[in-house]
Structure of Galactokinase:
Amino acid sequence: MSDVSSAFRAAFGHGPEGVWTAPGRINLIGEHTDYNDGFVLPFALPLALTAAASRRPDGAVRFRSRQAAGEFGASLSELVPGAVEGWAAYPAGALWVLRDGGYPVGGLDLLVDSTVPTGAGLSSSAALTCAVVMAAASLHGTELAPDRVIRLAQRVENDFVGMPCGILDQSASMLSTEGHALFMDTRTMETEQVPFAPDAHGLSLLVVDTRAPHRLVEGHYADRHRACKEAARSLGVAALRDVTDLPGALSALPDDLSRRRVRHVVTENARVLDAVALLRSGDVRAVGPLLTASHASLRDDYEVTVPEVDTAVDAALAAGALGARITGGGFGGCVIVLVGADAVRTCVKTVREAYRERGFAEPAVFEAVPSAGARRVA
Ligand code: GAF
């Protein structure tokens, strides 16, 4: 935090008025369910973005990132959809959604620093948008409730950046608490903090960053989203969340592709409910097979995995993991592995060997510790 404040001072010649932090996330289970009004079970990582900011009297904005060269500068009125590219589109979009929503905003100096890797499916962009929405609103006199920040940050992605995401990532960043997974009904936004501490059960939840870059804005995600909406329409339900008779729905659908997309969403919602029930009863080990079933569904029915991801899952399972799956939107990114603490070393070694054999770049592996959500820190 003091690093961010000193970097801010060095860049802008004065100190920040405030500092906010927002974490990246892992989704334990419940993938591609959020834009189908379904259930999700994410938690926040200790990896986070920190944003230092202060108001400017002249209606100008200046953005800097410690992870990017140069400075982005514009006037507030120039920040409209389509006008800003690269990382600056996210803070620009945060200011645009606030203005568009009728909240008072003015000029802003902003410097961000992040430990959330970008393009790894760990929600680096939700961390950025949540932090900047909170910072800009607060500095201009509005303390937004977390559910407002979530919706506004989602709008940044949907209407400014052009990524039709749901509310999983923003909710995880805003609402997570240490030692818990966040069970959320994305239709009602009702939440439950479910205790989740693998180490207390002699287990570890590893994150394997496959380093296969994921690019969700590039169409595949939007295709899945569209297929789900079309299937819901042809089944006569508001959202796939409302499908109660899966065999009946499958026989009513016109083609194999939509049948597979629907089967994934409906079975994944059921797996979230099963995982929550197991966590509530303290049986963390039994969540393993649900993770693996989720992966198979995402690989075969939803088709969002890539060879690096499948290799990590297969190698981890072969080395004795209790369960493993891709996490996040897919097409690259990270795998999570639930494994007994005594099998961690073998598991990591087996995954690394499998990567070497296939000629893939060395994956990064770290342990996921359920951590606190976004907040003002100074
Ligand atoms: C991405 C999206 F941003 C989320 O809204 C969610 O749909 C996820 O992919 C898949 O579960 O992270």
